[in-house]
Amino acid sequence: MRRIIASVRDGRGFDFVLVGVPFAFLFALAGLPLIYNILMSFQEVDMFSLGSFIRPFVGIDNYVALFRQPETWPILTNTLIFVVGSIAGQFVIGFGLALFFWTSFPGASWLRGLFLVSWVMPGLVVGAIWNWILSGDFGVLNFFLRESGLITANIFWRSDPNFSLWAVVIANIWLGTSFNMILLSVGLSAIPGDLYEAADMDGANAWQRFWTITLPMMRSTIGAIIALGLIFTLQQFDLFAAITDGGPNNSSNVAQYWAWDLSFRQYDFGRGATISVIMTVFVMFAAAVYVRSTRHEVRG
Amino acid sequence: MSETARNRLMLMIALIMAAIYLFPLYWMYVTSLKSGSEMFANPPSFLPSSAQWQTFAFVWESRNLGRYLWNSTVIAFGSVALIAVLGTGCAYVLARYRNVWVDLGLFLILMLQVLPASLMVTPIFVGFTQVGLLDYPRLAVILAIAAKSMPFFVVLVRATFMAVPMELEEAALVDGNSRVGAFFNIVLPLARNGILVSAILIFMQAFGEFVYSKSMIQDVSLQPASVGLNSFMGPNTSEWNNIMAYATMYVTPILAIFVLLQRRIVSGLTSGALK
Predict the structure, then answer these.
(1) N or C end of chain B: which has fewer CB within 10 A?
(2) For A121, phi and psi rounded to 5 degrees?
């Protein structure tokens, strides 16, 4: 016993305690729920069987029933549109801004950092602001679009099924662009400057320099950022709660919001768990890509 | 074009872009100062004709914002304290050694970092119900947030520990410090800034957390401000000036912290997420 205490105070035991306790905590509150989730997806779980551990085992019935529901495929399609639209918008605008701020001028880094306010704000607040900006009759976005002649009649962003998903996509692009920009700026500043000097001497123009130096040198950064974008968009929940609530008629519903809706509004925890398991697999895949692209950092 | 003229031009363009990007924020502040009728004016006014400061006092009273913000603060401080105590040591060990086990641990940490809260909330809710934790809903939310955000904290703080030279710790050990002594007297003080910045980032995240609080806290008097804002925004609401005043009072402290510590927060963030 004394040797163990001595080791904790002044030996390898110290390391084991420092790393063991957090991992035990994470296992209890993240690992166990993951396993429990898989178990629940094979059970029938509702309000009545919530408190008991022994619940009817239904095999893959939850999965079968889920894919028989008429709204399943539209919601999965929405998820895809949401993810692709958000990532494309965030990345393109973020890259453009990063390239602009890369040309150093006084105040560039301070102004660039200021953009990050969109990212540190609570998601609910971002959602509330965009909900108001996107409002149909009095929204300021419709005003700008009308004044610039892009539209003649107001778009009812939140209540028109053709636009409701895009309302959330717009808000999400705004939210995530700054984060993309900051990370891309880090990647840009890591490109050695003499490459560009050499290209200059060879007579390459700006366009050629971008395609032959900037993009290839940024490949691993871009991979990591796209994977991070996938992770963050699949985590996005607050904007749906604040802007459209998944409606009207599921036209802006996505898998991660639906999973919560099934569990906490329809009290069908078994099915909520089923969706969660399916989505977790996707997220894990994105995470594996992310870890691969940042491997250099991880291995030091 | 001379150097200064070019710099001025670039700064002008940058300011315009920042103004466009930050317009939603400006719109929140402006709307919160408008009166009920001015808010729906067409064309909209971009400066309030007469600022309605009393809206803030009214919303603070009628929505019980003080209580909501207090709950948010309790939850955020609880999560940060738990994460800092558990995560700092973990990050230290993962930064100090390099072997297969550390690689495996890092891999697990990164995997846990990505799990969406809205997917994890179902099993956590059912599990917490069964062990009776939901009788202490704020504690339950703190535990859930800690599990969600700790991996991020560990990744950020690990980058800080990597920058602390190991020779300093070895010198302290040679001088007769125990491992515990060297950790608390030498390594921790040197990594203090990085830990503090990461803790602030976690605090800002936890202060705005929504999914867990919405799902696990039924009692209104224990709910944080994010849930309060959500219930304030009904589907057919028209009191947008009040909602924006609520949002302003909720978000301004966070924005103030961010603008003050911007440089440090940005550099702390970028050193961990990828390099």
Answers:
(1) N
(2) -75, 150
Per-residue pLDDT of chain A (300 residues; tens, 9 = 90+): 777 777 777 778 888 888 899 999 999 999 899 999 888 888 888 777 777 777 778 878 888 888 888 888 999 999 999 999 999 999 999 999 999 988 878 888 888 888 889 888 999 999 999 999 998 888 889 999 988 888 888 888 888 889 999 999 999 999 999 989 988 888 888 888 888 888 888 888 888 888 888 888 888 888 888 888 888 899 899 999 999 888 788 888 999 999 999 888 888 888 889 999 998 888 888 788 777 776 654 433
**Cα B57 to the chain's mean position, in Å?**
26
Asked if A276 and A259 count as a contact pair (C-beta separation under 8 A), the reply is yes
> Nearest-CA neighbor of A69 among A279, A271, A276?
A271
Q: What is the pLDDT of residue B25?
A: 94
Residue A33 in contact with partner chain B when CB distance is under 8 A:
yes
Element holding A153 (H helix, E strand):
none
Taking an 8 Å cut-off on Cβ atoms, the answer to whether A132 and B244 are in contact is yes
Instruction: Write down the residue that tokens 């008991």 correspond to.
Output: A52
Domain A69-299 is classified in which CATH homologous superfamily? MetI-like (1.10.3720.10)
Give me the DSSP letters along B16-65: HHHHHHTHHHHHHHHHHHS-TTGGG-SSPPSS-SS--THHHHHHHHHTTH
Nearest residue to A179 via CA among A85, A242, A93: A93
Report the distance separating Cα A63 and Cα A82, nearest Å: 23
**CA gap B153, B157 in Å, rounded:** 6
The residues, any chain, with a CB within 8 Å of residue B237's CB and separated by 6 or more, are B243
Q: What is the pLDDT of residues B233-252, one digit of tens each?
A: 877 778 888 999 999 999 99
Q: What are phi and psi of A268, to 5 degrees?
A: -105, 80
A142 CA: distance to closest CA in chain B (Å): 11
- The three-point CA angle B22-B272-B95 to 5° equals 165
* Window A:169-208, CB contacts with B under 8 Å: 174, 177-178, 182-183, 186-187
Per the DSSP assignment, residues forming a β-bridge with A57 are A43
Q: Nearest-CA distance from A112 to chain B in Å?
A: 8
- Min Cα–Cα distance to chain A from B220, Å: 17
* Pair A220, A296: CB distance under 8 Å: yes
CA atoms within 13 A on the CB side of B163: 14
Domain assignments of chain B as residue spans, ordered by start: 3-52, 64-239+250-273
Cα-based distances in Å from B120 to B28, B117, B197: 32, 5, 27
Which pTM does this prediction carry? 0.89
ipTM: 0.90
- Give the helix, strand, coil percentages of chain A, each rounded to 5: 70, 0, 25
**C-alpha span between A83 and A89 (Å, rounded):** 10
In CATH, the number for domain B64-239+250-273 is 1.10.3720.10
Q: Which of A46, A120, A168, A220 to mutate to test the interface with B (most CBs of B within 10 A)?
A: A120
